[in-house]
Amino acid sequence: MTASVITPSPVQNLSSGHHFIELSLSSSPLLNSPLGSQHRVATSPPKILRSVPQQHILGALNMPPPLHPPILPLSYNDSICHQLYNEGLFKGCFSDVTLHVPFKVKQFYKVHSVIIAQSPRLLQLLENSPNPTEITIDVDDPNVNEEGFSIAIGHLYANSIPLITPRNARSVFASAFLLGLDQLCFYIVEIIKKNITKTTILNYIDLIEQGVEYNGFSKDIRDACFLFLVRKLPKIFEAFKSDSSHERAGHQANRCTIELSNGTCHSKGYWELLKVFAELPFSWLKRVITSKYFEVPCFMRYKFAIDVVQERRELKKSNYEEMVYLAFGMKFPDHITIARKVPKSLRKTPTRVLYKTPVEAM
Prior knowledge:
Helix content: 40-55%
Largest sheet: 3 strands, antiparallel
Strand content: 5-15%
């Protein structure tokens, strides 16, 4: 005598966002006895679909609560990483290494040597430390902060890429470079390049001008910032377009062109671009404004450079005297150069020593 038992199997209804339990009957040897003959069940019963909330499915599978609840149940690998991140890094369970860091709030992490050995920098500390259970990492990069370091070291336990935003990309990148996580650095550089805007450009330039060299990553960020300044930003602000009110007739457009060359007619975008350029480091200002790729009308380059230098002087952005000169004999007619020198008030004049002839005693 054989009977059947109900076996649940989850089925998802994507259109309604619910899960269903498919109940089917299968043969069971436990009911195969004379006592169960009067309780014989049909061999081909109909299937029953019962709506079950998604959290019940996750609970039935004994799956830990995810950081960001997914639509579908986590994969096996994701559930392992989730467990390592929450129980291992966050709670510090079963840790065998204490990693000391020079932060004000978070001064140490309870980590695991087999996990942090993925980082070349931390692996070196583990191998060379006289006490591998207590290691300290020195942070000499001003771009590294607690938030960025936590995300970077968390990436050794689980995928932390969803936590990276344009706001913290700078610190996460510097932390990943400190730990030697090149793959994470490549990903963050792409995030930075895609999020260079008129409001973030100065922040990313400051990142690579802090005196820390990030190998080839610095060049990628530097080139992306340069191209944005010389080509995209003038177009975003429409800085060198004539006033639309002057474009109604041909003679008015010609008059506006003359006024632009005289510096008496500027659009709002012109002054917005000028303010951004006035905040640039001097080396960046000189490179961008004198570049042949800087998209500025021929007759406007010199006047724009003069206005930028004047704005920097008013903002006291430099202790040097900055001047703009026209350069002749170049391949393109509007070539200029920007020079700087120490003002006379700050120059160190050598003290003059008067020589006094000794008077002989009479």
